[in-house]
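Response to reviewer comment R2.3. The reviewers asked that we include at least one raw input/output pair. We reproduce the pair for Protein AmbD here without editing.
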Amino acid sequence: MLSSSRAFPLNVDLQPGKPPILRAEAAGDPLNWVVKHREALRAVVIEYGSVLVRGLGLRKADETSTVFRRLANGLMNEREAFASRRIYSPGVYSSSAWPANQQMCMHHELSYSMEFPGLMLFACLSAPTSGGVTGVADASTVLNALPDEVVKRFVLEGWILTRNYNDEIGASYAQAFGTEDRNAVERYCRANAIEFEWQPDGGLRTRQRRRAIIRHPVTGQLCWFNQIAFLNEWTLAPEIREYLVDVYGEGGLPFNTRFGSGAPIGEDIVQLLNQVYEANTRREPWQIGDLMLVDNIRTAHSREAFEGPREILVGLADAVRPADWSPPQLRTAR
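Raw output as returned:
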């Protein structure tokens, strides 16, 4: 436990295998409690990368949206979503529409975008009967656990995300870019270093190269920051991958990742990345009313398969747009 005489005026419970947990005494007024402890909460996130606040008693979407706005330095609208979401209010969304029986592997939200949230906010309005944990993993720890040869290649090459937008699976281009206007989509792509190609059937194919490792703007830590494994074909369940390849062809998968050179990323690399994530995952089952703050650069997050109703509100906060997206020098990567 960190006592109030040390870094924070809040007691943070640190246990192996669990995210930092802070037990609030909101006395039926979560908004007032959050306003009072805003700076302390944000300091805890800087120190540990995430914190689960238990005892706030969040129950309603409008109240939760207000809490998110008070905690954030600004909420941002999502662009380039890989799955559809329900919009509760500007910058406040449902969890991504993803089959309940399939895990969402570790990732950093919008790490393939030129602008991404520095802070993620999660609130549990309805907890599942089993599963559904939002796991977290420290990105610097993950980076240090990866083999040197893997890190060096991604430092030198970065990674490429290829997406095929259609109206049948995943987010359509209208959902992802917030418009059906092709000219507006093209302007966005040009402004954000995204190659694009309209398909004969009206769909859209895009390709973007990004860094795999970035330096945290506050702590200076090097962080494994990407969605290389999550959006790769080998993370899909075998039967789902087989079906999608059969229907769309290998080049028509809704998303896939490659080395920055364009070479395929093998199943062995994807398995390695997911194994390292798993070895460093911290978990705590959701309870109704919980709030979680996650530093989106320092901390990856996941969503485990679940049963029963699960309503998690998500806030994308504190937009970050690095001035330099070129790969870091090799000597600084470890």
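The chain has one domain: 1-159+210-334. DSSP finds eight helices and 19 strands in the chain. Further pairs are available on request from the corresponding author.
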